[in-house]
Amino acid sequence: LTAPGVGGVQYWAVSKSDPNPAPPVWVVQKPAHWGNNPVYQNDVGHFRKNGVNYFLADLANRHTNDVALQIYNTETGVWIDVIEQSPELKANAHAILVFEEYAFVTCNGGFFVVDLSQLPHSASITDVVVNDWNNDGKPGQTNGIMIRPDGTYVFVAHGPGVIQSFAFDKENGKVTGPLHILTGDGITGCTNRGRYFGPLDRLYVAGRGGNIMEIDARDPY
């Protein structure tokens, strides 16, 4: 799966017996009420429930600053648009993290959490987190997001050079925090991808000069 950048999902079918895929298929459906406004997209994810595959794509409306998680049902071809319209969270969207029956979507200003448990019928936002880490009234661009394998804590990276920890409640999809704010000259503001390695409780994020930052995350506080 890839995000074409202008909305929708581009995908290839690949098998062990035929590892060279055919040309990709592109499925796209812009929210109807967005009209011809320019959009931008950075990420696409995958979710599977009751044997059905779903594609999850972020989409940002550069005219209205709305941010959407688009959910595409591969069996029915039906799209569900979950749109966040808060004044703090706005274009662009940056990354999608899927954990169990939740999706986390980062964007300019913070991130929001979407409950996927009611698919194929509906999906809904359970929480919105504004990331004004230095309390200047200007929420920053939130990029990468990681989660502890047991789902108790999430970590977000955003520029310039900040990583935050939050508590997450799987029962209601609510986020609490930030519990701690880590800053460092070696952390970039472009950490669209990060990884949490459970056995060591370590975060791995992009660093400056082509380095990888290794962060001890045993104590989220």
Q: How would you summarize this macromolecular structure in one to three sentences?
A:
With 221 residues, this protein is mainly β. The chain has no helices and 18 strands.
Describe the structure.
It is a single chain. This protein has 221 residues and is an all-beta fold. Helices cover 0% and strands 50% of the residues. The chain contains no helices and 18 strands. A hairpin with a 5-residue loop joins strand 17 and strand 18. The chain is globular, with a radius of gyration of 17 Å. The mean pLDDT is 89.
Distance between the termini: 35 Å
Low-confidence stretches: none
Structural class: mainly beta
**Total beta strand runs:** 18
- Strand share of the residues? over 45%
Q: How would you state the average pLDDT, rounded?
A: 89
Shape label:
globular
